[in-house]
Amino acid sequence: MVQAASSGYYTTPTDTDEDKRVGEQPCEAGSACVGGMKTACTEGSTYQPSTSQSSCEVCSTCAAGKVMTSECTTTSDTVCGDCLAGTASSGGSLTECEICTGNGKFSDSDGASFCKTSRAGTKPSTDRTTVELCPKNHYSIGANDTCTPCPPGSHSHPGSSACERCMTGKYFNESANNCELCPSNTYTISGASDIDGCLGCPPGGHSKPGSGFCDQCLTGTYFHEAFNDCMACPSGKFSATGGSSIEGCEPCAPGFYSNDPDGAGYCSPCSAGNYTNSDQTGCPACPSGKFSSIASTVCAECESGKYNDIEGSDVCKSCPDYMTSQPGSTSCHCKDTFLSTINPFNNEPTCTCGPGTTLENGACVICVNGFYKSTTSLGPCTSCNKVSVKNAIQSTRPLATSPLSCMCSRGDYRTLEPPPQDESNNNATFIGQCLPCPEGTNCDKAGITMGSLPLLEGYWRSGTNTANVVQCYTESACAQSDEAQQNTTARNATFLTDSQCAEGHIGPICNVCKPKWVKSPTGECFECKPTSTSTSAGLSIVLLVGLPLLLFFLVKRKRAKNKQEQERASTLSVSEQFNEIRNAKKGRIKSLRTKVKILTSFYQVVTQMEGVLGVRFPPVFENFARSVSRFANLSFIHVARVDCMMDVNFYTSLLTMTTAPIAAGLLVVFISFTYTKFARLNAQRRGDVVRDTVAVLLTLSYLVFASVSTIIFETFNCKTFSDNPTLFLVADQSVSCETTTHKLWQIYAGCMMLFYPFGTPFVYSLLLWRDREVLKVEGERDKDERAKNSAFLWDQYSGEFWWFDIFDCARRLFQTSLLIFFFKGKASQIVFAMMIGAATFSAFLHWKPFEKESDNVLAVASQCSIVLTLFYALLTKVGVDEDDDYDKKTFGVLLIIINLIGIFIVVFAGIVKPVKKILRTLGKKHVHNAPLKGLTLRHRPLPAFKSYFYELVDSTEATAGWERIDAKYFGKHGKGEAWLEENNAAVEWRCSTGNGPIDQCRATFSVNASMEDVLDGITTTGKFHKVLGENADGTDDMHIIANEFPFPLFARDLVVRRLIERGEERCGIITRTQPRTQPESDARNVRVHPMRVRMHIHIGGYQLERVSRSVTKVIYVIGGETGGIFALDWIARKGGTAHLKKIVEFAKGLEVTVDQGGDGGGGGAVQDEEEGGIEMFDMTENPLRVDKEKEEEIRKTVGFKGLSPAT
């Protein structure tokens, strides 16, 4: 059944036809539902805020005074709001209020429907929200935005609609709200709106209160209100138009005055030279010293440099030239820098410049630095450098008034000796010159003169009139105390020289000790103590007597020890003999004696360089050298402090040094004679004593040779010190060389030359020449009884240098004493000494005369130290050390180190020996009990030696203890095994004594060559091998050079004795080092000298066995004694295997490739490396002899110069 929808509802669903709808829903807000249909309200016209409504409401409009703030929607009505004050609205649909903008319009409340109009006497406020009253003297008729100002002469009250006007002579008083009279001396013609409208009378006018005009007084008068009349202006004032009151009379302007009794209409100016008084009624005159111009109120003082000596002056006079004045002066005086004098021409004061000043820019200024002036004038200053003192660029401050005021700058000093004149530079006006301060002075400020020359500590000069400053022997001796520096101007040479020295020092360069003072090794003087006298005497006796006795004891001990060694020698093997000989030569006394001899001669040379060459070394080195000199030169006078017991000078030292060795020698001879006389000795023992005595005398003569020779020659070494003309002895400045006494001592010294410098070498020469033939043979000279007497002279040298001690004496003379006579005091003297040093250095380096290599090294190092020390002396002599600013302390330490090299070598050798013994003791050894041991003396003859060689070649492990060498010694990582297999070599080694380091090695291998070819290849000599000659026993001697060096270095070489045996099936090559006891043949023109080699060869050689026509078995044997640092087992093993490897590779290099085809007599081929092809040759010829160049090429390929045990 179809039902009708309820009011305010609509049927659903809305997306179907109306007849098919089955439900209803309430109508939403903003719509109306009637008869089941929903209709939306019209936007802006109708609205419905509720649901389930059947109709829409009509939208409202705003009332007057309001505006619409929110428009009507389908769900809400229109919202209206009030207009604010200052605006208005007629209502309806307006959305904005209208602002009140018309003339006089305003709105004074909210919600106004229209704008109001302002009434008369008011105006709208700025924001149009209210009205304001017009201010006083303004008016408004209404309906206007502004108030109009009252016209001139009228006034109004606040809020007035019109303005009012006062009568003539009156003004409107607002506070009284009434028109009142204008004050006196004012007027208004038409009335005034306020007091300001009452105008003042013009100058000279006056009026009564309420006046409409003003009355006027005459010029120079004013209106006196009390008298009601015009009065004359008082003096000092004026009135140009007449004044209305006393104030109308104006004061005169500054510099003007008035004094008219009838009144002044103007003021008159004061004339020049006058000034107005305080009340401006008159013009008094200016006093003297002052002036004024017209219309001045005060008189001005004359300015500085002007004056006025009269009253009433309008100007000041200027002071004359170079004068000035204080402000307000009535006279002038000289300027501060000028001197006042009387002009002799007009007898008036005048100004000029005094000494030391000159006119410059209108003032007397001090002469600039480097100039002076000695006159009173306006002239210029004189240049020191160009006129008076050459090179003086400064002068004394503040005034330089004479040439003596010229000063030298810092680093220079002034001398009053004019410089020399020449054609290019006329120095006639100079009275002196500036010269650089010499070394040893302290010119750290300007103005130093020769007289005030300050000296540094360690320097000395002979007086204040000399600048020749010399360095003192000892720095601390020349103390240069403050007292000495303060007295440098005393010009008392005696006082000056004494005052320069430290306490206890006197004489030139302060190198003389006062009585009862003794000189230390470094040159300082110390006061003798009472307890030192007895000690010095005892020490002198000990030195004089003990030294010869000590030498005598050492010689006898050496002789006894030599006999013991000879008794043992015949029972030792060769290896043991080498050890014994080495140990004997390195015994404590034997080893040190030669080194002490070398070092003593070295330090005798070095310590005498300072005195002989006259050169100064760094102080630290000088102290070192002087300390060493006392002992190296056996100066027992100073060592024993004899100078504390008696007065000692050079003559005492000369006498003692020349006679003490003779006395000591006589003492030794006396003791020897007494001993042989009363001890009942047999002939042999007496001979031993005589030989010991000779040895002691030779040793003593050697020790004193250089020092005594030097002191003898020093007798002739004189020089002057500073500018003292007296010649003093260089060795002792207390001795003058110009006395008769000194001449006599020079004669004595000349006689002593026959004993020492020339006599000693002459005696040495006689002794050595007498035994020269024996001394050349080292094995024989030790046995010769006569030669033993001079053993001290030759036993440290090898046989061929039996004469070397004579050369050494000459060397020491030329490096010390004789240098005094060559280029004395010049750099050439040092150059000459260096040439001698270089020559002796080359001689030691080339000859190596000593038996022991360590002694040769020490001697070469000593000569090198001498040359280096002389080189520094040369640098000092020519001034390079000063020019390059060397650090003397550093170089002094360096020189000490250079001169201690010999000591270092000896100490190092002493340390190395025990270390080497420990290493040998702890090192690996080869031990066996096989019967075949090493060589002994019984194997010295050639047949026994040859038999031993073949026995060694054929020996086995059981008979000789051979041990197979591990392949690792020939190469690691399998290379050693491969090398042994490739060469089919068997290598062995052993210790020949049965317990010790390896000293014999053996290699067995085969060579693919005929035995004859191998033999020829081995025996062929090259450029480094020379056959010296054949011996009667069938052997020959071969000279082998291992390394060849240029002069002065000597080649490393040795001589071996070789035996070659040829057989059909076996050949032998046997070698051994040539015994040094064997005399040389005439063909042997080489020096036999022990080379620094790794091994001394005892035995070595080859045995060649024919295996077939083209195959040869080779057995190589080498046996030797390692020495030095190589005397260790592990070094012997390493060196032995390396040597065997070279031997095998060299022999394999002799192989040729044999053609196996044909009848066996065909040919072979050798690869030609240069041509790259194959060269064929006939095997019937020896290929090594056919092509010598190819032979040398093969040798170079295997890297071996020649096959020899020593190489």
From TrEMBL:
UniProt keywords, alphabetically: Disulfide bond, Membrane, Transmembrane, Transmembrane helix
Superkingdom per UniProt: Eukaryota
The TNFR-Cys domain, residue ranges: 40-80
Residues annotated as transmembrane: 537-555, 650-673, 693-713, 747-769, 827-845, 857-875, 890-912
UniProt xrefs under Pfam families: TNFR_c6
TNFR-Cys repeats: 40-80
Ranges of compositional bias, category Polar residues: 1-14
Annotated region described as Disordered, given as residue ranges: 1-23
Coiled-coil intervals, chain numbering: none
Annotated S-S bridges: 41-56, 59-72, 62-80
Designated name of the protein: TNFR-Cys domain-containing protein
